[in-house]
Structure prediction request, 92 residues.
Amino acid sequence: MNQDYSDLIEQISVLVFKTIVEQEPNLAEKVTNLDRDLLSLLRAIGLRVMSMLLSWLVNQATSQMKKPGWVVHRRPQIKYTVIFGQLKIESP
Prediction:
């Protein structure tokens, strides 16, 4: 990606911080597992964002190929493995 997303990173970081502080009772007692729990949360977020991006790209590619008259005959799932886990994207 070619953009500097520092503003977005700051906004999301503040949102995650506020949500954790508000929703996690006894946070001080959980400090030893805090990084592990945060990693799980960030992986889930990353997996969701990747799923959304790949679905969008699949739809873009399909739209471009239909313009010259190509026809989509099947609807299998496309499997992707990304650093956040494995995704299954519906292929139009």
Summary: The chain has one domain: 6-90. The CA atoms of residues 2 and 53 lie 16 Å apart. The chain is about 55% helix and 15% strand.
